[in-house]
Write a structure and sequence with these properties.
Chain A has 100 residues and is an alpha/beta fold. Chain A has four helices and five strands; from the N terminus they run E-H-E-H-E-H-E-H-E. In chain B, helix 1 (18-31) runs parallel beside helix 2 (60-69). Chain B has helices at residues 18-31, 60-69, 78-83, 100-109, and strands at residues 4-9, 35-40, 73-77, 95-98, 113-117. Chain B is built from four helices and five strands, in the order E-H-E-H-E-H-E-H-E. The model of chain B has no long low-confidence stretch (mean pLDDT 97). The chains are: A alpha/beta (100), B alpha/beta (119), C alpha/beta (118).
Amino acid sequence: MVKTAFIVIRSPQELEFTETIRRLAQQDDASVILFEDGVYNALQKERAQQLNEVAAEVMVAVDDLEARGFSGSDLKAGKTADYDDIVEMIMERTDRTVTV
Amino acid sequence: MAKTMTIIWRSGSMMAMDVNVATKLAAAALKKGYMVKMFGYGEGITAVKKGQAPKRFPNVGDDLVELAEAGAEISLCETCYAARGFHRGEEIEGVKIGSLTNNLFRFVSESDRLVTIAR
Amino acid sequence: MADSMLVIVTKPPYGLEDAFAGLRLALAMSVNGMKVSVVEIEDGVYNAVAGQKPEAVGMPSNVDATTELYDFDVSVYVVKEDLEQRGIEESSLVDGVKTISKDDLRDLLAEHDVTTTF
């Protein structure tokens, strides 16, 4: 199956998107990239658990995470990533992006 | 031939950090050897205004100029531009005032990946 | 190189520019011969309600922006479950809009090279 990178820039309270991801891709084919307030999704227990259920991999933009006072050790889902890693995910490791 | 990424951005220059995400992504893709095209749509067109002078925030106009100099092809929707009272000649260097039908269509047709930065 | 595009509309009409902008983008791609589909999900399904009176708020019509797409073979889909959740009957939809199940979305996505969301 084709692989999809889902891009999220909004906070858990602004947007419920895990069901959207589930509808559009099966877990093995879904990766999530969290930018800006999207990083809060990987810090909240319940949302992080939902993320882990719908996506095979979760990337958290490290600049945006650190700017908000958190670091990789705070994450409840995914791993920190720099822009190089994110470009690699979009261009080489998935077939298309969907912004939710 | 190197693969191409097109980024559509639709957020205003300072309403969020969205344009900064778009420019950082573009810069990283160029550095890795990919071709990059960018298209401003809707409120996104505000990011190409010449003479932006934020005192503390990053200057996305300057970031876009640098990207154009580094080889990114940057265009935007003239209908959106005119709607907001911008005129040809008010845009930063390296940006081409264009349209969905001509410029974005070509960008997408020539792209391997399309990324949307909007909220 | 992308030959097909899926335009995903999540925003309702008139409060925001996005849905109209998405329908116009779909038109612009399709007039050039690209294979384009529009899928309206979540609050995006409100765009498919017939009987909209955009003149009441002085806005351009999202219904016209939808039906103009048919001339260029653009399919416009709405998700059945999202209609049901919002109490919208299928009989009240704009002519020509196609209803699909949420279970069809993965296949629809797979049929297109690129996506953009409004």
